[in-house]
Design a protein that fits this description.
7-stranded mixed beta sheet, globular
């Protein structure tokens, strides 16, 4: 089994920054992708960003492109979501996820159905 633990959420003013971390432990697979999704109150969970196993390929939702940066440290089995220029509409519970073989690829990694393991989520609140 794979365990994912997110951290780094909190309350920040608009224009501020936060860095979320997602640490994977347990029976992780070698070539797993890591994705971030978020869910705002009353809304469906939506894709934020994904990164491949080696960290050299990322994809972002249009709403966060240019403001968020996803990276990973393979040695630590940890992914980092740097969020800059935060806006009130970024307020949500942010969750990370990983997959297992057969790994997601292409657009399959932009949907929650492409992932098998999920963290509990961390709250991000952006105030005016």
């Amino acid at each position: 089994q794979v365990q994912l633990v997110e951290s780094g959420g909190g309350l920040v003013q608009a224009g501020g920054s936060l860095r979320l971390s997602c640490a994977a432990s347990g029976r992780t697979f070698t070539y797993y992708n890591m994705g971030w999704f978020r869910q705002a109150p009353g809304k469906e969970r939506e894709f934020v960003a994904t990164i491949n196993w080696s960290g050299d390929s990322t994809k972002y939702a249009d709403s966060v492109k240019g403001r968020f940066t996803l990276s990973r440290d393979m040695a630590k089995n940890t992914a980092y979501l740097q969020m800059n220029s935060l806006r009130p509409d970024d307020t949500a519970v942010y969750s990370c996820a990983t997959d297992r073989p057969p790994y997601c690829s292409g657009s399959g990694c932009y949907s929650e159905v492409g992932y098998n393991y999920w963290g509990q989520g961390t709250q991000v609140t952006v105030s005016l």
